[in-house]
Amino acid sequence: MHHSVGLVFVMMIGLAVSIGLPNKCAQLGEQCSKTVFQRCCGNYVCDLKTAFQGVCVKCYPLEHGCMTDEECCSGRCHVFQCKPRP
């Protein structure tokens, strides 16, 4: 029973997101917020300057904060920072 309630909840959220959110994304150099409401297009990443205010860039430079390898110009995110490849 609990699994089906969770599944229904997830499906409802997915439907609300697909219907209610604009399908627009920010291009290189445009403003972004790193949220679903103001995200960067394609492989661009949002370089936040303050909370929820940033600019779309191609990738993060070395020592920039990161979550995934794809965000870094070097292709390596280690302990939440862009690092050079070994």
Automatic annotation (TrEMBL):
The record's Gene Ontology cellular component field reads: extracellular region
First and last residue of the signal peptide: 1-18
Chief place where the protein resides: secreted
Q: Which UniProt keywords apply?
A: Disulfide bond, Knottin, Secreted, Signal
Q: Where is the UPF0506 domain?
A: 25-82
Record Pfam families? UPF0506
Organism domain of life: Eukaryota
Where it sits in the cell: the answer is: Secreted
Name of the protein described by the UniProt record: UPF0506 domain-containing protein
